[in-house]
Request: fold
Amino acid sequence: MPMKYSTLFVLALLVVARTTHVHADLREAVYAHDGQILRVSVDRIDTLIRSDTDVLNFPGMIAFTGKLILPYGRGRHGGKEGRPAAISTDGGKSWQDLPPDSPFSDNVQNSGIYGFLRDGSTLYVDVFPLEVKSRREDWGGKGYHASQRITDPTWRVRRFSKSGELVDTFTTKVAGLPWKEASYENYGSVVELKNGDLLTAFQCHAQAPSETEGYTFTTFIARSTDGGKTFQHVQTFVPRTDGKKIGSQGLCEPDVALLPNGDLLCLMRSGSDTPLYQSRSKDDGKTWSLPVSIGWPGVKPRLRVLSNGVLACSSGRGIYGSPQVTYAMFSIDGTGEKWEAPFNFHTGPGCSYTWNLERNGQFYVIYSHSDFRKALGAYRLPYQAIKWAVLNVTKEKRVR
Reply:
């Protein structure tokens, strides 16, 4: 079933972009749907960390009591990359890198699976299984997905307290996988259901890469009844429709959210310049609908239900090595049945992988402004940076 869109916002988009003279980046927009109005504006954009020499990419953000932790990547994508983390104890005004022995400096990334649980603790599932060969020289001259095909994968899971202390480390597996071997990498969120079960989406490449199609990624849903110690495979989203591969990559980089109406929504990337797809569960995650395109391109979507009931998603799009568009998009009624056109606040180089959080009634989107894959200086940037855009997202009833 095709998604529905707002014609009112398209007009607002053109007017705002034309009158603000900010390279088509938006500073304010008004959306209307089903008797409700949503006003979105940029309050400010802050530079969190910057470098005159190193590429900075792939930012994350975890809010603990009294501090913010910012995992990020240092180094050009496809080259030698480090995974440091920075800490702020003054609300993001200043940042210091954490020492190498910090657990957040131990492969905590923008990627991986995060769970923000009701007791205030945070779960983090590593991006790659423990069985992965981390050294490229051990890949036999092949790429990651061709060489890292694993049977019965194991992941490390860490749990952090409200204050950000590491309180537990354990391993997890997924039972009932319907294939013998695959390559795996994780993205997205763990959702805690009303009964305490944990539900998440994993990403894998279940079939060997095709010489004609390249990689076709697959997303599958899994549930845990024991706090994440074990997961059970629930459903796999077939990355094909009408006999053709979905998008340019299949279904990957999933994120899952529990919506105000009780539905579960899984939003997935299908490529760098192909639409995002989504699937819905109306029965507590037991069964899921066939994935459908939402119409807008994006990578690594990050979902968040705001305190006013609006469903928000941050993402970006663009071809590697080209200027990227970084945006937030919104479903006013919180269902994801209808997404408004993206509110793009940044056009320029970057990785297009975002993070977001809500603080003091405002929506924060963390993103990179950096060279990403091109050689340093290719865009003639004065510096490389991780930034956040602070957005006001206000919902009101339409006056009739």
The first strand starts at residue 28 and ends at 33. The CA atoms of residues 23 and 347 lie 7 Å apart.
